[in-house]
Amino acid sequence: MDDVLNQAIVSGILIGGLYAIMSVGISLTWGVLKIINLAHFSFILLGAYVTYQLSTSWGWDPLLTLIVIIPGGFLAGVIMQMFFELAKVDEFQSLIISFGIFIIFQSLTRTIWSADFRRIATESNRYESMSFFIGDIAIQVAPLVAFLAAVAAAIGMTLLLSRTYFGKAVRAIVDDPEIARAFGIDVRRVAVLLSGLAMAFSTAAGVFIAMFQSLSPNMTFGWLGIVFSVVILGGLGNTVGALGAGVIVGVASGVASTEWGPLTGPLVTFLILIAALLFRPQGLFTRRGST
Amino acid sequence: MTSRTKSLIGFAVAAVVLNLVPTVVDALDAPGFYVTFMFTAFFWIAQSVSWNILTGYSGYFSFGQGAWFGIGVYATGILSVKHGWPFLLALPVGGLLAGFGGLLLGMVVFRLRKQSGEIFALTTLAIAFVLASLARLYSWIDGGRGIFMTGTPLPEFLGDFRTAMFRMTFAVAFLTLLTAFLLYESRVGWGLFAIRDDEQVAHGLGVPIFRYKMLALGTNAFFGGLMGGVWSLQIGFVTVDDVFNIRVPLFVILMAVLGGMKHWIGPAFGAVIIYALTDRLNSAGLEDLNQVIIGGLLIVLVLAVREGIYLRLRTRWKTAMGVFLLSMAVWTVFDLASSLIWDFSYASLITVGVALIPLGRRLDEPAPGTIVEEAKDPSDRSPP
Questions:
Q1: What three-state secondary structure class fits B11?
Q2: Which side of chain A, N or C, has fewer Cβ within a 10 Å radius?
Q3: How far apart are CA B201 and CA A206, in angstroms?
């Protein structure tokens, strides 16, 4: 029994990395640009399906697809933000518009790839069956890769935000966009780049999902609770917080699933979300005065 | 005669006329799907108008309509099927339970020190999913087995199933619209609009913000649940996936945004147009295209017609009415489509197009986005 529990915890930590990557994009655009962009969910799904298609039709290594998917996601984010700027949408409109994009994509993926479960064939996905043991605990390679990518993303974003001019501009915009603009920061350009970066994270998350899960268009609804729990718990715009929160959510729902049955996993996730919203809307990892 | 009295007379006339519809359809020996079409439209009208009482009036964006709907469906289903309550008794209890759920949520969320619209929106989203998980988990609710509603005995005086559905959905939609109208015209409504515009200022001016928000949320949840209870019969076999999906909250938002959230009747217009459109697309076998069109329509309308088509068409109501009647006449006379519902759908779609035409604004017309009602109504109302 103890082994099962330990296994659930370790798997939960690893899957938490995936949750973090899925959430970083939404967290950044919400925290910095004040846009709740539901289209991120569509692009996670799209990233996963494109990976599936490339691996299945052309036998690409799933990780190799990242070289197409990251620039593609970046471009999509840039275009979307440019559209938002052009149409001068406010916060509420952005929610509605991205909701519209979300339903369009939902139906397009269903049309292209059907509502059936799709999974990359084992022969073109060598990561899926790979695993090794530490003691009695099995570590699957695919979630491990996602976890390491999440750690790298958290470190990279922290360095980017603290060490570069771009990062300084982002932090200034979080504090006050008007004053940032008055001090000569090109807010539009920063917003467009940040949106591209955020979308790139989301599409990349899709690649990791395709590596070890079966895909179906309705997955996005299951992600809503996970991603928003992670975003709120981690604190808006906080990439390191997202990693911590991802691990918490992963472990909690993993342990609940093994201890009380698989149906309780989503329940625990949503209860965490509600608790986070009610008691710590600023996130677990937010200190005073930091973004 | 004040505009309020006029509206109330309008309500009374509508009640009498619409109540006769099933009888007339029967007498004319017209196909029954006209009645089905209408009662489904009533369902969406009640859902979107009740959603708007919270979100349109107070500005708190809710994804929770699915939760209130679901509580109504399940409470009515469990009470009438598993416990053998008479359906008409289970129905209001389902509505009240949903309203109680709304108040429970409000008691927690509206008491938070840090108020924010996003937190409210996400909490309502999560509530629906929590309820879905609970329903899957516990067998006294559903436990994955579903509830068979078909064959639930209904009182004789309601008529056959279709007529009964028509009468019940009509009654709930009527009550919802009446409540929305009375609230809109009341002190509470004005307090809610003040909250929507600026909650701090409203509080400072003495609006009891907590009480009013609770009232709006409770009313929304009650009517959402009540209509959910009626709808459980139409679903027939109630399952978690059918009830707690994104469909209800999605469509309700769409309808209200399209129709206009700043006027009490706006969502009803949106409901009829969106429902007619989706119904026609579905019957033409274009379910997938359906969502693409709806999503695209949402994007275009949010950008082009911010105040919603109701207020926009009001400023040019003669043109809109003319276009609607003309296209309806053309379609009917030349028999271009196979049924009246098609005629109606085409005519509404063309009329929506009128809202998009950037007509030059005359000086006496309000700019888009201004609230026509609140600007001119105070002159003809007596102090509450």
A1: helix
A2: N
A3: 45
Q: State the Cα–Cα distance between residues A165 and A190, nearest whole angstrom.
A: 10
Q: What is the pTM of this model?
A: 0.83
How close, in Å, is residue B93 to chain A by CA atoms?
26
Contact B61 A221 (CB under 8 A): no
Task: Name which of B125, B137, B288 is nearest A224 (Cβ-Cβ).
Answer: B125
Count CB atoms within 10 A of the CB of residue B353: 13
Please indicate whether, in this complex, the C-beta atoms of A266 and B129 are within 8 angstroms of each other. Answer: yes
Residue A128 token pair: 């899926």
Q: For A145-171, what is the HEC assignment?
A: HHHHHHHHHHHHHHHHHHHCHHHHHHH
* Residues B218, B50 contacting (CB under 8 angstroms): no
Classify each residue of B21-53 as buried b or exposed e, where b means 16 or more C-beta atoms within 10 Å of its C-beta.
bbeebeeeeeeeebbbbbbbbbbbbbbbbbbbb
> Using an 8 Å Cβ cutoff, are B141 and B130 in contact?
no
Residue of B112, B257, B291 with shortest CB distance to A104: B291
Q: Which helix (H) or strand (E) holds A167?
A: helix A165-175
pLDDT-wise least confident of A9-18, A208-217, B253-262, B299-308: B299-308
Distance CA B95, CA B226 (A): 4
Say if the Cβ atoms of B127 and A277 lie within 8 Å.
no
The reply to whether residue B125 touches residue A228, judged by beta carbons under 8 angstroms, is: yes
**A101 with B134: Cβ contact below 8 A:** no
Residues B32-45: tens digit of each pLDDT? 778 888 889 999 99
Whole-number Å distance between alpha carbons of B223 and B238: 19
pLDDT in tens, B186-196: 999 999 999 98
Give the 3-state secondary structure of residue B205: coil
Nearest residue, CB atoms, A106 vs list B291, B298, B306? B291
Q: What is the Cα–Cα distance from B243 to B66, expressed in whole angstroms? A: 7
pLDDT at B377 over 50: no
Query: What span, in angstroms and rounded, lies between the C-alpha atoms of B193 and B217?
Result: 14
What is the distance between the alpha carbons of residues A25 and A27, in angstroms, rounded to a whole number? 5
ipTM above 0.90, yes or no: no
Average pLDDT, chain B: 82
Hey, what are A89's tokens?
């949408």
Q: How many residues does chain A have?
A: 291
**Alpha-carbon gap, residue B354 to B358, rounded angstroms:** 9
B291 chain-A contacts, CB cut-off 8 A: 103-104, 106-107
d(CA A205, CA B14): 54
3-state secondary structure of A134: strand
Q: What's the CA angle centered on A242, arms A238 and A248, to 5 degrees?
A: 145
pLDDT for the residue numbered B182? 92
